[in-house]
């Protein structure tokens, strides 16, 4: 391919539209895992996809894919180009979205990381309506209580509860999440119901850590309007929300959890809130994405939808 300089502008003989289309087809091949599935998804001949990817590799003068009879595997250059291509395609789509609003139908794949309790209680129950509005979109969830590395994990965005400590990411606060301290009736029958923070010296907690080794065992309360950490003893440490809740229901100790996660259990009496006058400070729920990326139309629409879900859900 030959480049012609006109003033300060470099004009390629191959049209920008062709180059943009090649990026789109390459992304489709990577997301579907084959030329055939990419062609079917885009309703075009397989030969068109194959020829386009070959032309892309010729233009870049590098191999992007290892092709075998069973699967397609990206090369290191292919992995690097995939992210760059996604950034460009997302930027163009996002620019259109700024002017056309909801008229642009988002499509492709959206990869989201979030805590399991957020996925289970808030996002997934509301997801059918979102996908019905955007039938060409597919969503991949990493619903884990482990801290998700957005960039290394290939995520488009992540949700995190708590103050973000990730300078390489842009964080948008969605809202504050109220927390409660609670225990099972069996636990309170054995240890008594604390009336004051001083009473906690004779109590135990279930320790929660996002990853091992665990940090110091503490519960945090609001005391005279200020956060106060109370070190406590506990014989059980978990790294998952489900296990944390199960341990409390089994009477193994006090826990502090988002109110939305235990509202039904508090209503039935399976758990009992304690020390409501010293309720834990709320934690921010933040929406994060990579600083170096343009906010794609998919991510922008998902964020806007999520804000509505949180408002309507009374989280």
From TrEMBL:
Query: DNA-binding among the record's keywords?
Result: yes
Q: Which part of the chain is the HTH lysR-type domain?
A: 18-75
Coiled coil regions in record: none
Q: Which GO terms describe its molecular function?
A: DNA-binding transcription factor activity; sequence-specific DNA binding
Keywords annotated in UniProt? DNA-binding, Transcription, Transcription regulation
Q: Does the keyword Nucleotide-binding apply?
A: no
**Superkingdom, taxonomy of origin:** Bacteria
GO biological-process terms attached to the record: DNA-templated transcription
Q: State the InterPro entries in the record.
A: LysR-type_TF_proteobact-type (IPR058163), LysR_HTH_N (IPR000847), LysR_subst-bd (IPR005119), WH-like_DNA-bd_sf (IPR036388), WH_DNA-bd_sf (IPR036390)
Q: Which family does it belong to?
A: Belongs to the LysR transcriptional regulatory family.
What is the protein name for this chain?
HTH lysR-type domain-containing protein
Q: Which organism is it from?
A: Paracoccus halophilus
Q: What is the lineage of its organism?
A: Bacteria, Pseudomonadati, Pseudomonadota, Alphaproteobacteria, Rhodobacterales
